[in-house]
Amino acid sequence: MCYKEYRVQNAPAAAYYIPNFITQNEEEYLMQQIYAAPKPKWKELAHRRLQNWGGLPHPKGMVEEPIPSWLQEQMDKITTLRAFEDKIPNHVLVNEYLPGQGIMPHVDGPMFYPTITTINIGSHSVLEFYTPLQLHEEMEQSRSLSMRNIGSLLLEPRSLLILKEDMYTSYLHGISQVTQDTVTQDMFNFEQCTPMLGDVLTRGKRISLTIRHVPKVLKAKLVFGRAR
Ligand SMILES: O=C(O)CCC(=O)C(=O)O
Ligand SMILES: [Fe+2]
């Protein structure tokens, strides 16, 4: 199977959405492993908390760290879909969102270019997309965010999302800080999802596993210091 079969037709180039990419058992297993991590593995942010696996990405390069097998299994499945073409993913960001939490619109930048893949577990969420500000608008009072919204993707639990091309490089993505979402035609992929138009979905605790390929890696240097 190739990821290209799952293209979201109504979205700009290019989004791919795979419902039920993992089973309920796999979802529970991932949850267990994520919550088995020691407390310092969590980094607390204002509106979410996260775990970083595989090394700390840095513009100068990432010093790679071993990835646990419970994550590697899922990364291998994504590799099989050829989501990273001839590359293999080497980094995972685990984000936890409570109902009402989200993430500000942003682009992921050059460090992970050209592919973002995300496994969703626990609850649904809605990823919103926005046109970037034009150069002249950065000086003026910019257009409101809602005017820049071009649509969204409904991310069901156990699904996999793949973003490439303009959906990676050009449009901003973010998650609104709300506790409920209504299924509308603004959701590019609603036809690929189980809920029906008009359904109101209440958010629960959602975990996203953002799996990416960091091209620039540094080999860990062995430094021999003299013992004092
Ligand atoms: O949780 C998500 O699906 C989005 C996370 C995200 O955009 C990021 O970590 O860059
Ligand atoms: Fe992002």
TrEMBL record:
Q: Which Gene3D superfamilies match?
A: Alpha-ketoglutarate-dependent dioxygenase AlkB-like (2.60.120.590)
**Which part of the chain is the Fe2OG dioxygenase domain?**
88-215
Q: Where in the cell is it found?
A: Nucleus
- TM stretches of this protein: none
| MF-aspect GO terms | dioxygenase activity; metal ion binding
**Which cofactor is essential here?**
Fe(2+)
Query: Which SUPFAM superfamilies does the record associate with it?
Result: Clavaminate synthase-like
Where it mainly occurs, coarsely classed, is nucleus
**What keywords were assigned to this record?**
Dioxygenase, Iron, Metal-binding, Nucleus, Oxidoreductase
A Pfam family (short name) is: 2OG-FeII_Oxy_2
Give the record's GO CC terms: nucleus
User: Please, which domain of life does this record's source organism belong to?
Assistant: Eukaryota
Give the similarity note. Belongs to the alkB family.
Protein name per the record: Fe2OG dioxygenase domain-containing protein
Q: Which organism is it from?
A: Cherax quadricarinatus
Taxonomic classification, please?
A: Eukaryota, Metazoa, Ecdysozoa, Arthropoda, Crustacea
